[in-house]
Amino acid sequence: MSVLSKPKPRVRVNQRRKTEQRILIFSLGFLAFLGLFPYLFMLLTSFKNTQQFVDSYWGLPLPLSFENYAAAWGQTKDYFVTTFIVVGATIAATLLLGLLSGFILSRFVFVGRNFLFTCVGLLLMVPWIAALIPLFVLSKDLKMLNTIWVLIVPMIAGNAVLSVILFKNFIDSIPQELFDCSVVFGASGPQIFRYIVVPLSYPIVGTISLLTMINVWNEFFWPLLTVTDDSLRTISVGISFFQGQNETDYGALMAGYTLASIPLLFLFTFLSKHFLAGIQGGLSVSDK
Amino acid sequence: MAIAEKVEKVKKNKSQRKRFKPILYLGLAPLFITLGLFSYYPAANGLTRAFFDWRFFEPSVFIGLENFRTMLGDDMWWESFKHIFIVFIAATTIMWALPLLAVEMLISIRSLRTQHILRTLLLFPLAFPVIVTIYMWGFIYHPNRGILNTALQAVGLDSLAQNWLGDPNTALYSLLFISFPWIASLPFFVFLTGLQNIGTEVFEAAAIDGCSRMKRFFLIDMPLLGRQFRLLFFLATISVLQFGTSGYVLTSGGPDNATMFPILRIIGVAFNGGDWGYAATLSSTLFILTLALSAVILFISRGEKQNVRSL
Fold first, then answer.
1. Of A31, A189, A267, which is closest to B102 when you measure between CB atoms?
2. In the predicted model, is pLDDT for residue A122 greater than 60?
3. Could you report the per-residue pLDDT of A137-153, keeping only the tens digit for each?
4. CB A238, CB A79: distance < 8 Å
5. CA nearest to B55, candidates B272, B267, B274, B278
6. Which of A61, A98, A259, B57 fits A56 for a cystine, CB–CB 3.0-4.6 Å?
7. How open is the CA angle B119-B120-B122, to the nearest 5 degrees?
8. How far does the CA of residue A69 sit from the closest CA of chain B (Å)?
9. CATH class of residue range A73-287
10. ipTM of the complex
11. Do the chains contact at A120 and B31, CB–CB below 8 Å?
12. Residue A248 CB neighbours (<10 A)
């Protein structure tokens, strides 16, 4: 970090520094390998048929068997379709609610503003389990069980909270001059929303979208309990069902796990900044 | 200047009189209708139903504190809190220590490019769905074909190989070790951003004063991370109370209830036992407990409101 050092024989210090750096890189590389090992093993095993798995547990025997992927895809493709529908609908609604409510709560002064915002914030304190059973009964009364709606609507309610808070905080941080200027030039509320707030909020839009996607992708108990129709299972529950179907066919199982991971891996690789911000739940955003 | 003053005036006037503007409430309506129906109402309903005998297809009857009396005698419920406590200890010690160590090592690397690559690799496991991670670790622990036992046998340590998830003595700890070394985690992020925000002048000053790396860690890094520790403590409390997916998926609370967690007990009571009222009692208790603990932590770390608001 520091370039300042005591006047000592330069060469030796540099040598020692280099060794230190190498040790650090090696140790961290090892830790990274340790963390990634299960997934590497998963990837290798997904290319082995049953015989290859028995013969070569650690290695990667050739030829690669792709039939595992064919089998896994055949059994899981419905789950992907359902999950993408749920993800798309939830993201759209979450963004819309977050942007609009965040804008109103941030930039207008009206009776009950702080109270309403506090009410939204309070929901962060409510663990999902507290509402699980009444929510289940409510869904049953609304005849939503075993439909796509039971997967989407509670997800929107769950994800809208953080969305509103992040958008509000972000819109708070947009310089007031920008709004004053628009008002002076005669822009109306909807115009300000459309031409100033929405375009400036793109970074948060990315964060919220990824956060919502990760949440929907990983949601387990709710779809497990509310949906029994196989084609309506989301990926997390579907994989769990798939696991039960292929108890000992490890190649197919791991191919299924790999398929289930691909969309999130793709996003992590290409949108890692938003992805990481999303996982942090916007901690970094609010820290500033 | 004149315009700015005018704007200032308009702004003041606006903020001075609070107004009812119907259009604003209309704009907020979709949010509050959704939250009201699917968040506030169920949560409030759960708290009320705790005092009812409530089963499917039967009218619910008010029974006062009867459910709470049942809860006091529910050994499985209280035992689940012992397990949660072990999880909590692990979540706030080893699951912080390794990420912190990794962060310290990472920021000591001088090449920014290497730093970035290593950071990405260390965080990469986060990109995998939780359920995949859980099942892969289930496979690692598999008694016959699992990675752990196969590896132990390969190096001649057959005696150490065992049925990790099937033995009540090891099941809970096996679940805790899922996603070891826990570096792809929130603590890693929080520590990393925390230390990166400290500013290099502090570290340079320490180096000039001849502060060793160890000394710097204890005298500078740790105290400056105080806020981060409080934040993580808060998060750990909330998330540990809701711990249980891995227990449900891999062990179903067994063997011998060794991995029973409050969440699993609640789901069991509601969906297998059909006793909705009692399940509501249990979940309300968990809810109140979460609130109480959060309140205590917020009280202790007050003055850091800004950090906590967005959770």
1. A31
2. yes
3. 889 888 888 899 999 99
4. yes
5. B274
6. A61
7. 65
8. 16
9. mainly alpha
10. 0.88
11. yes
12. 10
